[in-house]
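Consider today's protein:

***
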Amino acid sequence: MSKEYLFTSESVSEGHPDKICDIISDSIVDDFMSQSNPENSRVAMETLVTSNKVVIAGEIRGPNDYVCNYEELARQAVKDIGYEQKKFHWKHLAFDSSGVHKQSEDIAQGVDARGNKDQGAGDQGIMFGYACKETSSLMPAPIFYSHLILEKMAKARKENTLKGIQPDSKSQVTLKYDSGKPKECTKIVVSTQHDEVLSQDDIKEMIVPIIKSVMPEEWMLNNPEILINPAGKFVTGGPDGDTGLTGRKIIVDTYGGAAPHGGGAFSGKDPTKVDRSAAYIARYIAKNIVAADLAERCTLQLAYAIGVAEPLSIYVDTHNQGNIDNQNLIKKIRQIVDLTPRGIRDHLKLNQPIYKQTAAYGHFGRDLGSDGSFSWEKTDLVDQLKNI
């Protein structure tokens, strides 16, 4: 690692076309998880949005053959985001759910528990978790602050204190690092859809104070370059400006490129899918390792095979900063956390309708919810990990 370097991460708002799709897909997951016996629900839902149209497709299996009102969920999600534009409006958009079908029996036989067989992983794959001491949430700072800027903009927009700003936005934060620690901000970019009547100066006047209220003051002392809508006007946006799909913002969802990603998207998948649940437990373990002061940063990998309950491998990297042997750490992890799909869901209490709120502004580094959401952000393993 160089002594000094720049690192950049981006975020996208809930009104970005891809994020609209993630939110609709996770709204459907939540609906199935809110039924009785949610552990029997299986959802793998994809959404596409374009000009005044939403299309969903995927495989489902509901408890007692539950029938979901997909259209109502999709319209409500779009309404909550705030889309009432001429070419994308929650009330007037066309909706198509003809691509939804029942889960394959071939997949079900590998995943479901039968006889002495525990529930297996929903697919093969590798999942990563990461934590570091750059922020109080133990997240990398560039992605943490990229999310925070857009969250604050969305809140102001919905409270009508940010007038003329539309839901589709992006942010990008570049930080200078010295010996692996962030020291100052060098550039910030925000692009946001807006009403035709607003000038570039109007938009800058509204957005720059939000940026400055979010960023640590000591990182802004050298007056970083702040670019607002650098391409010029941004009136045509949302699904009218760009088609959206579920699962196209996986680096935004995780660590902003500061850590590996296994390749699988999260949104639209029920917690039997280890793409989602194992990535959550991996973050949980990595965060607890760092919170226990066993490392300044930690990367953890899990690997699974479809139909097999136990992980094929566990890898821990404390980046030559750890206070304990990594192999001993792996043994301890196996002792205190059940890493089977069922064990993960039980430990983190994932069979709940807690997923829609994860779909925008990151799945990690968020506050614990009173409804059980973001349970993977708990640091309740610290004492056990210290006693290695």
User: Anything to note?
Assistant: The two ends are 29 Å apart (CA to CA). The longest strand covers residues 165-178. The mean pLDDT is 93. The longest helix spans residues 141-158.
